[in-house]
Amino acid sequence: MQDLSLARDLQTIMQIVDRAARDLTGADGASFVLRDGDLCYYAQEDSIAPLWQGRRFPMSACVSGWVMLNRRPAVIGDITRDPRVPIDAYRPTYVRSMAMVPIRARAPLGALGVYWSSIREIAQSEVTLLQALAGSAAVALENVALHDGLEKGKARAREVEAANRDLAERQQALEELQRQSEALSEFLAHDLRSPAAGIILAAQARLKKQDLPEPERRRWNAVLTSAEVIQRTALNLLDVASRQHGMFVLRLTELDPASLFEGVAEILEPLAASRGQRIELCPAMPRCLLRADEELVRRVLLNLVDNALRHSPPHGAVRLEARWLGPGWVELNVCDEGLGIPAHLRDRIFDKYARLADGGAITSAGRGLGLTFCRLVVEAHGGRIDVTDNGGRGSRFCVQLPAG
Ligand SMILES: Nc1ncnc2c1ncn2[C@@H]1O[C@H](COP(=O)(O)OP(=O)(O)OP(=O)(O)O)[C@@H](O)[C@H]1O
Ligand SMILES: [Mg+2]
């Protein structure tokens, strides 16, 4: 019994049980038969001469099948006189009498048989012993199944752990790649700033000439606008990065919203003109001042107006408004006549690299840094930025900043 309780595999259990069955009953052979679907599999035997080890028989054609189907012992003192015995299979063997019991009476897993080479009376006590042994064998078999299950569970847990480790390593590698690519973009942006500034200066100098022929003026305007886009993108990227590295120094001064708007409109006028659009300044600008970093707030407005123009239909208008919000706050509005932004995506467009794809989903392809920059700047001032519906037509970006 102790050996059985420690057994961890089927083979060991069958060997222990066959040996014990022979010892307990003084039999000449013992067979451990396993149920294999509709067949009886003679899996293991311990016998003075070979019987049927390794063979399979239909349940209906052998004594072990009868035992399993009827879930009770078969006690056969003379095999020649019992119709359950397939005599042709027994004739070549030494077997003359036998006893067979089911292993696990309720839903038999198999059968345990003992065989004698002489015709003999089989005592009930021997059958009872065999049944007790078969009962222990059933428990041992269930233990093995349980143990295998546990081992599989442990192995699965180890697999999951390894997969998690692998995932963490990949995540780390990806983050490192992301860091490297951001560092590269920062270098690139840094190196693009001076050439872009040079082109802007050259284009501005050209455009100052009074007698510039119209086609040439248009070309230089296009050069100027493109160079400004390069410069703005480079600056956005550098500022977003420096803010993330914890460096973002504000130089606060008192600013007049109306003159900020005028400066922005002047810079983006060529872009608007090339698209047949207008930039309109609210005629009744309230008399209020902001306390903010001029350069950064100007670039916030440049980004918002640039977006508004690019997302408005040709010949539409982009409107700039300022409102006194009450104690301490001023709101700057950039309103367009474009398609607007679906309400559920209004927060997401401020995320780094987020852009709206056709059909309204968010993608992270392309630049998508302008609004991230805007939010960082506004929040660095203690203010807030959000976007709402522009009265059923386009979007209204609202920037709240401290009043001066
Ligand atoms: N006025 C607007 N109307 C409609 N959609 C807008 C508007 N402004 C921004 N968006 C959407 O939000 C996205 C993010 O804007 P953001 O300015 O951050 O990036 P971008 O304009 O695509 O690139 P950049 O980094 O050059 O500014 C845009 O790609 C666009 O899909
Ligand atoms: Mg933009």
Automatic annotation (TrEMBL):
Residues 187-404 form the Histidine kinase domain. GO terms for molecular function: ATP binding. This is histidine kinase. CDD domains: HATPase, HisKA. InterPro entries: GAF, GAF-like_dom_sf, HATPase_C_sf, HATPase_dom, His_kinase_dom, HisK_dim/P_dom, HisK_dim/P_sf, Histidine_kinase_KdpD. It catalyses: ATP + protein L-histidine = ADP + protein N-phospho-L-histidine. It comes from the Bacteria. Its EC number is 2.7.13.3. It is an enzyme of class 2 (transferase). SMART domains: GAF, HATPase_c, HisKA. It comes from Sorangium atrum. Residues 150-187 form a coiled coil. Keywords: ATP-binding, Coiled coil, Nucleotide-binding, Phosphoprotein. PROSITE patterns: HIS_KIN. Pfam families: GAF_2, HATPase_c. SUPFAM superfamilies: ATPase domain of HSP90 chaperone/DNA topoisomerase II/histidine kinase, GAF domain-like, Homodimeric domain of signal transducing histidine kinase.
